[in-house]
Amino acid sequence: MDLILRGGRVIDPSQGLDGIRDIRFSRGKVSAIAKSLPDDGAEIRNVSGLIVAPGLIDLHTHVYWGGTSLGIDAEEFCRTSGVTTAVDTGSAGPGNFMGFRKHVIERSQVRILAYLHVSHAGIYGFSNRVMVGESHDMRLMDPVTAAEVADANRDVIVGIKVRVGAHASGDHGIHPLDIALQVADETGMPLMCHIDEPPPTYEDVINKLRPGDILTHAFRPFPNAPCTAQGTVKPAVLTARKRGVLFDIGHGMGSFSFKTTRAMLANGFVPDTISSDVHALCINGPAFDQVTTMSKFLCLGMSLSDVVKASTETAAFALKRPELGSLKPGSAGDATLLSVDEGQFDYVDVIGEHLTGNTKINSRGVVIAGNWWHPA
């Protein structure tokens, strides 16, 4: 049966649209959008008073539940956070990706796409008790198999992932990035690079990234922040953006600070994509979920339309999946219902700074493949 969402405020940056509309879903796709649509035997849901956005894309998650210690349950997470596409960023590598695909991706009602880690077993040692950077051991770098697995699974693998920094790659510094870039070149896929504390420096990393590659944890705190102590954006960051490098938030447990974000926004440097980097160690704070991460940017001064764009249209562009992140007829039949609630809300970043905001974005339900998918 067709589904019509009636009377919601549709915010769809891909169409420059912000207004009251009806949306019809047929056969798993968006089939019509207009100020008024006839019932024609469809299931009707009155969503007046709510915002209807394209299905939210969380560009940085870890959802290999049961396969890695940091994995969370994608469906449980997405029911509460409004996410219809969860992008797993390197939980699995070429040595264990097929288990991730068979036991998690193919069984999920939520769409799961993946960046394949260049390290053989992905992020295998990440828990409260064990913290081993997979890029510390160059013996685990597996570029040949990574290229083979990525090429054979292009329907769900959207790019290559690597983690570098003092915690992730240790004494090997930037060298795992060099290997991952070779895999990305070989497969013609974009690369997502994690950065933590130096070495390497923020500048060293972004100077190697190509147009369409993504730096995640882009608004991380000092050291390796994208801004100077004087609050200006580092020149190499501006140069990388002009070149076409994309800057993703990837909040997580250690990679987002209010101080950095205030400086970047004050300079007019908004993130390309907003993502939660939700995993087992940050789902109960400080990241929580996608809508909480979006809310932080709304409270820090980004417009609602830009916040939605960074979680829909631009994320779809980064994935090279134009059928996502839009409510244009013919697009994937995914939508997220949101409310922007007023009150006093406590937000916290990864270094413990608290911010009291007067608004919060909340998920009120989702449509997946044209079907109503009720919240928890």
Tell me what you see in this structure.
The chain contains ten helices and 17 strands. The chain has about 375 residues and is an alpha/beta fold. The chain has two domains: about 5-55 and about 330-375, Urease, subunit C, domain 1 (Roll), CATH 2.30.40.10; about 55-320, TIM Barrel (Alpha-Beta Barrel), CATH 3.20.20.
Spell out the key features of this protein.
alpha/beta; Urease, subunit C, domain 1; TIM Barrel; 2 domains; 17 strands; 29% strand
CATH topology of the largest domain: TIM Barrel
Q: Largest sheet at a glance? A: 8 strands, mixed
Helix content: 10-25%
Examine the secondary-structure arrangement and name the CATH architecture of the largest domain: Alpha-Beta Barrel
The string of secondary-structure elements, in order, is EEEEEEHEHEEEHEHEHEHEHHHHEEE
Instruction: Give the mean pLDDT.
Output: 97
Number of domains: 2
Oligomer: single chain
Q: At the fourth CATH level, what is the homologous superfamily of the largest domain? A: Metal-dependent hydrolases
Shape: globular
Q: What is the number of E strands?
A: 17
Give Rg in angstroms. Answer: 20 Å
Q: What is this structure, in a nutshell?
A:
This protein has 376 residues and is an alpha/beta fold. It has helices at 74-81, 97-105, 143-152, 175-187, 202-206, 235-243, 258-266, 290-299, 304-309, 313-319, and strands spanning 3-12, 17-26, 29-34, 43-46, 51-54, 56-61, 83-89, 111-117, 125-126, 131-132, 157-164, 191-195, 214-216, 246-247, 335-348, 354-368, 371-373.
SSE arrangement:
Blueprint lengths: L2 E10 L4 E10 L2 E6 L8 E4 L4 E4 L1 E6 L12 H8 L1 E7 L7 H9 L5 E7 L7 E2 L4 E2 L10 H10 L4 E8 L10 H13 L3 E5 L6 H5 L7 E3 L18 H9 L2 E2 L10 H9 L23 H10 L4 H6 L3 H7 L15 E14 L5 E15 L2 E3 L3
Parallel strand pairs: 1-4, 1-5, 6-7, 7-8, 8-11, 11-12, 12-13, 13-14
Antiparallel strand pairs: 1-2, 2-3, 5-15, 9-10, 15-16, 16-17
Helix pairs in contact: 3-4
